[in-house]
Automatic annotation (TrEMBL):
Organism: Anaerosolibacter carboniphilus
SUPFAM superfamilies: 6-phosphogluconate dehydrogenase C-terminal domain-like, NAD(P)-binding Rossmann-fold domains
Annotated ranges, domain DUF2520: 134-262
Residue ranges of every copy of the Putative oxidoreductase/dehydrogenase Rossmann-like domain listed in the record: 2-117
Name used for this protein in its record: Putative short-subunit dehydrogenase-like oxidoreductase (DUF2520 family)
Record InterPro entries: 6-PGluconate_DH-like_C_sf, DUF2520, NAD(P)-bd_dom_sf, OxRdtase/DH_put_Rossmann_dom, TM1727-like_C_sf
């Protein structure tokens, strides 16, 4: 099976390198910026195409790795030019968008998929290394699903299949785990900065704490891994947190209370069963 890519950004290059590393044949890349295609081709020992029709004619499996808001337009353009041939597999790698973005390819006899690596691609070489242990989500046509499964079995990556109707919810979850984690860390670093600890030093200090928490979640699950004042029902400590935030960082009070409310929900599953303490914390954490 010969693979080709439209789009030569970090995702397209890193995944192409990964396929090549695992023994698959990369035919080449097409990009509006031909220099980008040349860079991708060099890294994957493949070709940089100046004409997209030539690339499409020489491959069995097309990966559209453009920015999300360009995927459908790219597919529609190829379909309008009648460049697809029946039986080709066409996939995009967006986490948020379903395979239906590629419906014009499907109308021309192609099998369409949304295949998303549950991984961030901030830097190509690191992404290539991280791909070794990355899960992939797959959504799309059932007819050739066995070929997609076989591909990832050979790659050695675990997969999970999701229904089209849940694609946006899946991506929302990925955003919480990745993007919102950054926001959560940033918020905590601002607290440390307010008391005179610079963000770089603060991050070094709390990283072992965060990693320990993640290891506990891995070992025990979220409910049993939870520690701290809410898990203990410690009303006085939570009140002191809110008072200092109201005095020093009033803009963060609503955030702290909302996180506290959600943490109380987790605590009540395993760690905190005292109904009076739960009620008291609910009152303290009410957003007024």
């Amino acid at each position: 099976m010969k693979f080709g890519f439209i789009g030569a950004g970090k995702v397209g290059i890193a995944f192409g390198m990964y396929l090549r590393k695992k023994g698959f044949s990369i035919q080449g890349y097409f990009s509006r910026n031909h220099i980008s295609a040349q860079i991708a081709a060099e890294k994957t020992n493949s070709q940089a195409y100046k004409k997209v029709e030539q690339l499409i004619s020489e491959i069995d499996f097309l990966w559209i790795t453009t920015p999300d808001d360009e995927i459908q337009a790219v597919c529609n353009h190829l379909a309008e030019r009648k460049l697809f041939r029946e039986g080709q597999i066409v996939a995009h790698m967006s986490g948020a968008a379903p395979s239906i973005l590629l419906k014009e390819a499907q109308k021309r006899g192609c099998h369409i998929y949304s295949i998303h690596p549950l991984q961030s691609f901030a830097e190509i070489e690191k992404a290539l290394k991280d791909l070794e242990s990355t899960y992939f989500s797959i959504e799309g046509d059932l007819e050739k699903m066995h070929l997609i499964e076989a591909l990832f079995k050979k790659l050695g990556n675990p997969i999970f299949k999701i229904a089209t109707k849940y694609k946006a919810l899946y991506h929302a979850a990925a955003c919480v785990f990745s993007n919102y984690l950054v926001t959560l860390v940033d918020e905590g670093l601002h607290y440390l900065e307010r008391i005179g600890i610079d963000q770089e030093e603060g991050f070094k200090a709390v990283l072992p704490l965060m990693m320990g928490t993640l290891h506990n979640i891995e070992a025990m699950g979220t409910a049993k891994a939870l520690t701290g004042p809410i898990a203990r029902g410690d009303q006085l400590t939570i009140e002191s947190h809110i008072r200092i935030l109201e005095n020093q960082m009033s803009e963060s009070v609503a955030f702290y209370k909302r996180m506290g409310q959600m943490t109380l929900d987790v605590a009540s599953v395993e760690k905190l069963k005292d109904k009076e303490k739960i009620a008291a914390l609910e009152y303290i954490l009410k957003e007024v």
